[in-house]
Specification:
mainly alpha, single chain, about 0% strand
């Protein structure tokens, strides 16, 4: 059964909130990180904004983009430990 647009929008809103939380955590850790981590962050950060913008469409493609961005940001956050 297909999800309704409302359910998809709610899921995307939740994922975008997670992206923002993860982004904030990463920014704090970057203050303590080395140049390599900062360079990787400069590559990743635009991708996050693209995912947030894509979420406004509330489509399956935007769900995939946001999910991939969340996964990438989680991996990057873990690499900062």
């Amino acid at each position: 059964m297909k999800e309704t647009a409302k359910e998809l929008k709610a899921e995307l809103d939740k994922s975008v909130a997670l992206l923002r939380t993860l982004r904030d955590e990463v920014k704090v850790k970057l203050h303590l990180a080395g140049m390599d981590a900062k360079a990787r962050w400069r590559e990743l950060e635009p991708r996050l904004q693209t995912a947030v913008e894509a979420a406004k469409d509330a489509s399956d493609a935007s769900r995939k983009a946001v999910g991939e961005a969340v996964d990438a940001l989680k991996k990057f956050r873990a690499s900062l430990r």
